[in-house]
Amino acid sequence: MQNTDCQLFGDSVEEELLLNGKGSTKEQREELLKECGLLAWKDRHPATLSGGQKQRLTLAVSDWIDTPVLILDEPTSGLDFKNMVRISKHLKSLAQKGKTILIITHDYEFAAMTCNRVLHFRDAGRTETFPLQGNLPRLYSCLMCQ
After folding, report:
1. Residues 6+ apart with CB under 8 A from 142
2. Residues forming a β-bridge with 102
């Protein structure tokens, strides 16, 4: 969901992970929070986080649940460039571990640095798919079409 406030239920950032990752160790939780740039805020209530921090926390939780497929809708909303790069690297590492990640985005930079394949939904229910490597102009035209 794009509204992160509807997805966070814990009394702290760390508790949010505990709600979704039972059996985890403190070290595992801290490593994930460090990867997402949230370790310094582990004791804070999620409602006190900035929009970008909440976005990164919901991504950490989705990673923590450990499903084989992640579907992310506009995962870069509220993120600055530094944290967009951080999330891109994290998602690529998950993909290398065998996860399938579907990203719905209008963010050209994020798509270009993160994705390896594009599925473009066109008009009248038509779709096209193509590898991203070597096709950045095609990606740009998909994102810019009306």
Report:
1. 118, 120
2. 71
pLDDT in tens, 100-133: 999 998 888 999 999 999 988 877 888 888 888 8
**Block residue for tokens 């790069």:** 85
The tokens of 93 are what?
């590492």
- Tell me if 112 sits within 8 A of 132, measured CB to CB: yes
H or E element that contains 102: strand 100-104
| Cβ neighbourhood burial of 3 (10 Å; 0-12, 13-18, 19+) | exposed
Tell me the per-residue pLDDT of 27-70, one tens digit each, with 9 for 90 and over.
988 998 998 899 999 999 998 988 888 888 888 888 778 789 99
Task: Select from 1, 65, 97, 34 the least CA-distant residue to 13.
Answer: 34
